[in-house]
Amino acid sequence: MRTDLLVAMGMTFFTTAIFSVGGISAMIPEVHRQVVEVHGWLGNEAFATAFALSQIAPGPNILMMTMLGWRIAGWAGLAVATLATVVPTSALSLIAGRAENRISHARWYGLTKRAFPPLVVGLICASALVTAQAAIDAWLGYVLTAGVALFVALTRRNPLVPLSVATLVGVIAGRLGYF
Amino acid sequence: MEISAAPPPDATQATERPHVTRFDLFAGFFLVGMIGFGGIAAAMHHVIVERRRWLDDQQYASVLGLGQVLPGANLVNMATIVGDRFQGFQGAVVSLAGLIFMPIVILVGLATVYDQFAANPDVIAATKAAAAGAVGLMFGTAYKIGKTVINTRWALLFAFLSFVSIGILRLPLVGTLLVLGPISVAVNFWRDQR
Model's pTM, two decimal places? Predict the structure, then answer.
């Protein structure tokens, strides 16, 4: 039973990782669909918490998959989730890195470099929408979202600044009974 | 297992390649993982180009481009490529380990602490606020990327289609990419021909 869970989760994360253009911020709807809707491994709240914690912590935010694996199946889940996410894409990177000269002069590379970024922009917006629906349940949440979005869009400062401010505002508003 | 390092790319032939040991790679990417709160991409450039001088700006841009085109987290991809370039397969493994080891420990620690106080109203409010802020971070990032890559009506159409497919219709990512990806490549190819 437990092994079945690890295998199913590993396969799901492996497939998702191979198609994860644009990193985690483009993948969230797919991960949410698989983990919450299709398999029911976690509830909405646990998913939203894993997302929030991996955004606050340092390191690549792809580690959200590690967090999900840990929540789903403990330490074994953590190991399986991390490997299933990192190994396939790193193997591709290893091959591509060694062939960099050939690849960077190939015609399809230039085409791919232009063809995919617009799709990624759409995917990130979709991620933001799906996450908002899963994690925001009060008007103040939308205000914080708008504030951080404006800050990130208009300045080049470290995004941890507006994220920290938003978190602090949330705590204060919570104390005052508004959140 | 010892696999020989990748041959140096054209870009490095002018400059002498720095000697970077496996320990250097682990320590360097460890540092990237640790100082990369909120902006790990900036931390990566800071450590690799400015502080350690493993790559110059042009080489870095080339590896970054490759890391972005490949699936997966581009920083994880870059760590693999850079590690492999200096120390082969083992270099790639230690670079990856360096990049993600401490962040995983911190993340698990954070989640454990969170669980202890999950019922605390301040913690609930903070988590909800952080998630809401992170949604804003995604919208802001999409705007920033969009400003540079959505420069034609076609690009706007494809961004819109991928948004609708995943965000509104909630269709699977794999199918969406297998349909929209080749069409987008074909459109770019066709526009080049004209």
Answer: 0.86
